[in-house]
Design goal:
Quinone Oxidoreductase, Chain A, domain 1; 7-stranded mixed β-sheet; Rossmann fold; 2 domains; 6-stranded parallel β-sheet; 329 residues; 15 strands
Length: 329
Amino acid sequence: MSERFRALFIDKTDDGQRAEFKDIAVDDLMAGDTVVRVDYSTLNYKDGLVVTGAAPVARTFPMIPGIDLAGTVETSDGDFSPGDKVVLNGYGLSETHFGGYAQKARVQSEWLVPLAGDMTTHDAMAIGTAGYTAMLCVMALEDHGLAPDQGPVLVTGAAGGVGSVAIAVLAKLGYEVAASTGREEEGAYLTGLGAAEIIPRAELSGDPRPLGKERFAGVVDSVGSNTLANALSMTKYGGVVAACGLAGGMDLPASVAPFILRGVSLLGIDSVQAPMEKRRAAWARLDRDLDLSKLEAMTRDVALSDIQNYAPQILAGQVRGRIVVDVNA
């Protein structure tokens, strides 16, 4: 008899959607050439949208949510061997393919990244899509030529997952980091991660001007909308902005002035379909450039059974740093 394991499913109903735990077997999973015994998943903003049904992220029902997973390969017809430690971000998990909120996952081997260095599966999910995306942002800024001696780097949504990891990485690399947050009580947390300046969210969330005072050489933005527009208006001549999120909205009420008068560059960062070469490079950089003691300070562990309680909190901006989901608890 096939081993059975627990998974969280969401499904459509006449009133919206419902979530329930089920005991299933590997044969109940979607197709894939590799079976991973999952140790941990995460709770990201996108997971909050899927679990609560606040946005139509899932396109196939029923769906197992969880856009991240880390664990151990059990069987593979691909390039992995049983016992290999792996991490998976994106590739349609929670949208078109069953995700990480289950004790096992069947996926394609070409989606998997082997864990770098001494990183554990718990470390990998403490980083998760949020931290991996933050690293993609940092790499994009560097590829554009940004260096620490050019001036401060603004990180918006600073107390969230992307923001927390971005601050820690940038500070370790020698950048002066300005952290924007709407939670003033998190000031000590943010300076502990390496922020040199705390900027109240209100300074960036009002109606944007075409051009503001030049303040930042670079920006990592996970908020969008007015915040991104204001950040663009305050970016120095020749500066660069990496945009990766929409917590504040999908709109961009900006003008072309920063682009044509200051030569500012706006870089879009996608983590879901990023090429494997870039993924491996990002995870290698995280192993090298992220202080694990800082990672520990920004991480909270929760059980899979509690995920429905935390999902609304992350959408309301009430979650600090990273949440690791123990799918076996």
